[in-house]
Specification:
Elements lengths: L2 H10 L6 H18 L10 H13 L11 E5 L7 H7 L4 E6 L2 H13 L5 E5 L2 H4 L7 E7 L4 H8 L3 E11 L3 H14 L2 E12 L2 E10 L11 H6 L3
Parallel strand pairs: 1-2, 1-4, 2-3, 4-5
Antiparallel strand pairs: 5-7, 6-7
Length: 233
């Protein structure tokens, strides 16, 4: 997907990019490639791959979910996906990225500055530790390509306000992951509202899972990560 195809495909979905936003995506790509030479941010560095598998893929959640001025926490965003493409398109979003690798945080803070993005912060922390002081604080918590859903649910749902949403952007094994996570999602106060299946390319399957927080998460969650991993709910 080249830049023009990216612009056209978004327009077909009702997202019309401004000249500034087009320039921000271009700059984002350039910075990603430049910094990737110094640290491992992504295995995908060709322009068509980045525009399709990072930028466009991150924005597919907006085709079925309304974004405006919500407070978002992006868990394990790595190089800023999916929250930064969403922030470019919806500049009123308030974005917090929580990632355990400090070098990624350095890149993200530089990215915010270069793209002139406001109401953005990147914090070096593990999600389960961050949740201790930020329980049920976010309107939306998101995660893409971080861990299996039965682990992600306990890292993310405690951060979501009641009546807020946990959005999980998943790949080919989404249905299998959703089945094994169904009990944990209920325990943590969530309810699966919608699963949107689609393909980026013929063999590149995706599922965007929309989970609503319908009741408060019990105070004992999240547990330590070693326990979450060893004994998912």
């Amino acid at each position: 997907m080249n830049e023009q195809e990216f612009i056209n495909q978004l327009k077909q979905q009702g997202i019309e990019l401004t000249a500034l936003q087009i320039e921000q995506f271009k700059k984002y790509y350039e910075l990603l490639v430049e910094w990737n030479q110094k640290m491992n941010l992504t295995a995908i560095t060709d322009q068509e791959g980045v525009y399709l598998k990072h930028f466009y893929d991150s924005l597919t959640i907006a085709f079925n979910f309304k974004f405006n001025n919500q407070k978002i926490i992006d868990v394990g965003a790595g190089a800023g996906f999916p929250s930064i493409p969403l922030k470019i398109v919806y500049p009123d979003l308030k974005v917090t990225i929580v990632d355990s690798l400090t070098k990624r945080i350095t890149f993200l803070n530089h990215l915010f500055k270069e793209l002139k993005l406001t109401d953005c912060q990147a914090i070096s922390a593990r999600a389960e530790e961050y949740a201790k002081d930020h329980r049920q604080e976010a309107d939306i918590v998101m995660a893409r390509a971080v861990a299996r859903l039965n682990i992600l649910d306990e890292l993310c749902l405690p951060l979501v306000k009641v009546n807020g949403y946990f959005l999980a952007l998943k790949g080919l094994k989404a249905k299998e992951e959703l089945k094994e996570a169904s009990n944990g999602i209920k325990i943590l106060g969530g309810r699966v509202d919608e699963v949107i299946d689609f393909t980026l390319t013929n063999d590149d399957h995706r599922s965007n899972i929309i989970i609503k927080k319908v009741k408060a998460t019990p105070g004992k969650y999240p547990r330590m990560f070693s326990k979450i991993k060893k004994q998912p709910l």
